[in-house]
Amino acid sequence: MTNDVELPRVAVCHYSGFGHTATLAAAVAAGAKSGGAEVTSIAVADITDPD
Protein backbone atom coordinates (compact mmCIF):
# COMPACT_ATOMS: atom_id res chain seq x y z
CA MET A 1 0.00 0.00 0.00
CA THR A 2 1.42 3.38 -0.98
CA ASN A 3 0.79 6.69 0.67
CA ASP A 4 0.05 9.36 -1.95
CA VAL A 5 -0.32 12.20 0.53
CA GLU A 6 1.91 15.15 -0.32
CA LEU A 7 3.80 16.87 2.44
CA PRO A 8 2.70 20.44 3.11
CA ARG A 9 4.66 23.31 1.62
CA VAL A 10 5.09 26.42 3.76
CA ALA A 11 6.48 29.85 2.86
CA VAL A 12 7.66 31.92 5.82
CA CYS A 13 7.88 35.53 4.65
CA HIS A 14 9.22 38.18 6.96
CA TYR A 15 10.57 41.71 7.16
CA SER A 16 12.98 42.40 9.97
CA GLY A 17 14.57 45.77 10.59
CA PHE A 18 16.69 44.73 13.56
CA GLY A 19 16.72 40.93 13.33
CA HIS A 20 14.13 40.09 15.98
CA THR A 21 11.41 39.14 13.50
CA ALA A 22 13.96 37.15 11.46
CA THR A 23 14.75 35.14 14.59
CA LEU A 24 11.06 34.39 15.12
CA ALA A 25 10.62 33.51 11.44
CA ALA A 26 13.54 31.07 11.67
CA ALA A 27 11.88 29.40 14.66
CA VAL A 28 8.59 29.11 12.76
CA ALA A 29 10.42 27.60 9.77
CA ALA A 30 12.27 25.12 12.01
CA GLY A 31 9.01 24.06 13.64
CA ALA A 32 7.34 23.52 10.28
CA LYS A 33 10.34 21.51 9.03
CA SER A 34 10.32 19.33 12.13
CA GLY A 35 6.67 18.59 11.38
CA GLY A 36 7.60 17.34 7.93
CA ALA A 37 6.82 20.40 5.82
CA GLU A 38 8.88 21.63 2.90
CA VAL A 39 9.77 25.17 4.01
CA THR A 40 10.91 28.22 2.04
CA SER A 41 12.01 31.25 4.04
CA ILE A 42 11.72 34.60 2.28
CA ALA A 43 13.12 37.89 3.54
CA VAL A 44 10.76 40.45 2.02
CA ALA A 45 13.54 43.05 1.75
CA ASP A 46 15.43 40.70 -0.60
CA ILE A 47 12.58 40.35 -3.11
CA THR A 48 13.26 41.99 -6.47
CA ASP A 49 11.03 42.65 -9.49
CA PRO A 50 11.98 39.42 -11.36
CA ASP A 51 11.06 37.39 -8.25
TrEMBL record:
Highest taxon of the lineage: Bacteria
Flavodoxin-like domain boundaries: 10-51
Signal peptide: none
InterPro entries assigned to the protein according to its UniProt record, in alphabetical order: Flavodoxin/NO_synth, Flavoprotein-like_sf
GO molecular function: FMN binding
The protein's name in its UniProt record: Flavodoxin-like domain-containing protein
Protein species of origin: Mycolicibacterium arabiense
